UniProtKB/TrEMBL annotation, chains A, B:
DNA-binding region(s) in UniProt: 27-46
GO MF annotation: an example: DNA binding
PANTHER family membership: HTH-TYPE TRANSCRIPTIONAL REGULATOR LMRA, TRANSCRIPTIONAL REGULATORY PROTEIN
SUPFAM superfamilies: Homeodomain-like (SSF46689), Tetracyclin repressor-like, C-terminal domain (SSF48498)
Family matches, as InterPro entries: Homeodomain-like_sf, HTH_TetR, Tet_transcr_reg_TetR-rel_C_sf, YxaF_TetR_C
UniProt keyword annotation of Transcription regulation present: yes
Source superkingdom: Bacteria
Protein name: TetR/AcrR family transcriptional repressor of lmrAB and yxaGH operons
Domain (HTH tetR-type) ranges: 4-64
Keywords: DNA-binding, Transcription, Transcription regulation
Length: 183, 183
DNA sequence: GAAGCAATAGACCAATCGGTCCAATGCCGC
DNA sequence: GCGGCATTGGACCGATTGGTCTATTGCTTC
């Protein structure tokens, strides 16, 4: 069994950097420097190189957000309240960092035309999130779970893009205000 | 006065390519090949190089979308109806191309940490859009024009990101369905 | 301690990057 | 035809890119 810390360090470093500068904006040397590992380690753990690392990083961050969704909705008493709490949780998460990082999927999205596998990865992760939200919508008796899931996902994506552009979580607090009014 | 066609060709080529692969994902050689111009022309029209070209391309595309907003809202009988029409117009625009291109601002957003000027450009263009929507919201007697403008901008951004990921305008048609229900 | 595998370390590669520079070209008023 | 400026054409540059390859290290199992 391989030492998990090295592989993990690579994934974390890659995810952080990609979310700030995008897939094409980050060089392997920068990732390796951040992870404190030589090039040999990268190609040992990810033989297909940058693309495979980006895929792993995106799925890792995607799973993290899905856990966040599950944990937050588990505490909610209604879907609308859960939606608000998710928005507030992401807002707090975003605000806790010195820089506002983009949605992890966004980071690899623009590299999709260059690396077809990343397109599939992006669709997979987005699909998982929507399904996850839909699951909770159904569980809480939302009348149109599919529509509600898309609507929330769409708003969160929009707020995340704007927050990234402004380097501020103001968009999330504004969205939270909007969601609170619906309860 | 400089010949507008060369400068314009560069801007159009750059905008198209950036919207597909992102700022860092496109090389100057690719832009020049698409525009059919040599490198000398680029640095004549844009002495500061790639960054200046990207800024011009983003502002150009930003102005195009703002004209689209104005033209669409001008035909609407209410803000909510205008919002729906904008969504449908962008949806049709997106669907008319073989590839779904990202929002022009998104293209340069992830390059912002590398090129500080692009961060300002992105904020400017987003700000113009929001103000433009707000202007129409006020004009049509929307009770909370600021909130309404942010809300629409946010939803459109989200739908655009998802549409880009899925390479389909399904997200826009879904958002249109949601907006139609509010009228 | 020797064999053997997991993992690291980094030299090295061709290709491409953004950018600089200057000669050549085309078009203008004269 | 000529001077002069706007623009083009493209060679050239150092730096960096993603990727390959091999030597070495360190642990584990006999």
């Amino acid at each position: 069994m391989s030492d998990p810390t090295s592989r993990d360090r690579l994934i974390r470093a890659a995810s952080n950097l990609f979310r700030q500068k995008g897939y094409s904006g980050v060089g392997l040397s920068e990732i390796l420097k951040e992870a404190g590992l030589p090039k040999g380690s990268l190609y040992y753990h990810f033989p297909k190189g940058k693309q495979e690392l980006a895929e792993a990083a995106t799925r890792w961050a995607g799973a993290w957000l899905e856990r966040l969704l599950d944990a937050t909705f588990a505490q909610a008493e209604s879907f609308d309240q859960g939606a608000l709490m998710v928005c507030e949780t992401i807002s707090a998460e975003v605000a806790s960092q010195t820089h506002v990082s983009a949605c992890p999927v966004l980071s690899i999205l623009q590299a999709a035309p260059l690396e077809p596998q990343l397109q599939i990865t992006a669709q997979d992760v987005y699909g998982s999130w929507t399904k996850c939200i839909e699951k909770h919508a159904k569980r809480m008796g939302s009348p149109q779970p599919e529509e509600a899931a898309f609507s929330l996902h769409c708003k969160l994506q929009g707020a995340w893009v704007i927050a990234f552009a402004q380097q501020s979580n103001a968009a999330f607090t504004q969205l939270a205000r909007e969601l609170r009014a619906k309860i």
